[in-house]
Amino acid sequence: KTDNYRPMEDAHSPFVSLLQDPGQCCSSGVYVRGGIPLESAESAEGRTYETRQRYTLCRCGLSQNKPFCDASHVSARWIDGLTEESKD
Fold first, then answer.
1. What's the rounded Cα separation, in Å, for the pair 54 and 31?
2. What span, in angstroms and rounded, lies between the C-alpha atoms of 82 and 20?
3. Would you give the DSSP letter of residue 78?
4. Which of 10, 48, 73, 86 has the largest count of CB atoms under 10 Å?
5. Do 46 and 40 meet the contact criterion of CB atoms below 8 Å apart?
């Protein structure tokens, strides 16, 4: 037991946002913050991940570290079709 315990990350208010990466001309992951629990539904029993204050989830389907984003969307130039730029 230690009396000097400090959380590694500051607490944030819960927030979820779809990210775009205009510098790379592509869409990005899902940004999650605020200690929102993450449970994978890929198996019947599900997998519960360590609750974090922030993480980014893959939404292009190409990450080698699913469910987390590993920036594979950049090399694939993945576009989600939700932005004005993708309608050109």
1. 7
2. 10
3. -
4. 73
5. yes
> How far is Cα 65 from Cα 82, in angstroms, rounded to an integer?
24
Task: For residue 55, give both structure tokens.
Answer: 């993480």
Residues 6+ apart with CB under 8 A from 85: 22, 25
Report in angstroms the alpha-carbon separations of 58 from 3, 8, 10, 24, 54.
37, 23, 23, 16, 14
Q: Tokens 């989600």 belong to which residue? A: 80
What pLDDT, on a 0 to 100 scale, did the predictor assign at position 86?
A: 45
Q: Which two tokens stand for residue 27?
A: 């869409």
- Average pLDDT along the chain, 88 residues, taken 10 residues at a time: 67 93 94 92 76 94 95 96 61
| pTM of the predicted structure, to 2 decimals | 0.78
* Tokens 């009396």 sit on residue: 3
